[in-house]
Input
Amino acid sequence: MCVADLESHEVYRDDALIDAAPDKTFRILFNTFTADPSILFSDQGYVRYMTVVLTLNNIGVTNNISMVFPDFPLLTQPELIGGDGMFCNNTHRPERCKPRHACFCLHRLKVALNDVVEMSLIDDAEVVRDLYHPFHLHGHRFIVTGMGQLPEFRTQSEKVDFVERSRRYARTMPSDHNPPYKDTVSVPSRGYTRIRFRADNPGFWLVHCHFEWHLGIGMSFVLQVGEVDQMKKAPRDFPRCGSYKPDIYSQL
Output
């Protein structure tokens, strides 16, 4: 049974969330790929990877971006954010990133406070595997409005089109449908899961695969909800963070 078919025992029901046209819609295609060993340790090499079996050096991506975390926490030290230029997404990539190649940067998606947000999480794998990716959203809870597996498509646009055609809004469900709220959900292998939530908690929130090694190799992104001046401020005596890596070139 799919999560989208379950009923909640929770009395509270947000009908406006279920029926509303979303203010922001995102299609998140995720996958892992094998790094090319010939450039892995060169000047054009990759930021990080994980060796799974012998020569299989895996790197994780969402929308062909492998997440690079900043040296400081965005929420508690926002004064260090160097403008929107320090962020990237699938339409705004650094100039150093080549077309149709994985890009290593700080992946951020931004929504306004109280937006109704819909995300389609799409497993971009070529084959069906035993592995289901559990995706977790920090700071919010969501309802699941659709789930299924993809046919054997060759392109990402074909996969997105299929997911769009498979929409399953509450209007096609029983009028008393009361979906459960979740903060983590599995995405079927070579499949998709569509979630919907109200972005009512301002801040910078991580969205990631909950396999820790997938998170470690870049399968994540940051969801910014609202503007910095709408977010809660850290206490004055809150610990501050920075880069822990020494500047090796200054020691030479």
